[in-house]
Amino acid sequence: MSRTKKLTLSALIAAMCVICLALGAAIPRVSLSLTALAGIFPAVIVLACGFGWAAACSASAAALAILLLPEKTGAVWFLCFFGHYPIWKALIESLQTRVKKPWLGWLLKLLGFAASMLVLYFLFSRLFAAAIPYHFTERAAGPLILGVALLAAFLVYDAAFSILIGWFRIKILPKIR
């Protein structure tokens, strides 16, 4: 694929990410779902163009969302986790395939997820305190319960993401190239 096609595809995917994040800002009830959907789009760039293009696409989408959107919650989630997740998921799974140790891939994914959630929690919990339900912040075990719930959601997201990437590789990627 030529550099012009890679740039065009990356720009279109970044625009689609920003559109999903804008819809999430406009429809608050599905904000996190649309942010997760926006996080799937950079996987297209990882598969079609490579890691560098995907990192640039994700960073530009996050920057545009933070600058342009009135509601920043989805943009912050995208910046801290969903935007770069497809990149490190692909890197971890390629490492996992090379060393033939599936547990290593899961361990690295869980550590990356935990690091992202800790950054979100400690840096932004004061800013987004209204978005966190009361029983997660006022109980002693609240952060632990929240962490377990987020971990379960991450495992489901990762499994669905893997299925979607497999479908994309078989059905769509040959048509793009």
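[next item in queue]
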Amino acid sequence: MDITGKLIKILEPITGTSANGTWKKQSFVIEYANGQFPKKACFQVWGDKVNLSSLVVGEEIHVFFDPESREYKDNWYTELRVWKVESAQNQASSFSSMPTPPPATGAPAPTEMPDFMGSDNNDDGDLPF
């Protein structure tokens, strides 16, 4: 999934130790348009998958994420795990700078619609099968 919005806050990283070793998590919040009123969403980055140091609060960013929910003691917790973040301006420029595809080769496109019913078009509603 992906979403574009304005980065409004980068939270401090959280680290810890588990049975699998040390871990690091950092969260950030974006504000995005959704109907009449803007909405806010908090995303999480685990480990060093995404470098948040290049992001600037107030800039438009494009976030790629996977929502994930887990149950713990009959309560459900949902997390938006980020796997890629890019500047919305970079994304827009990358789309506009994409080369146009070459024209298709092969048979030329038909200039008129073929007549599948034949020239004696019967309107009596009988189907041929």
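[queue empty]
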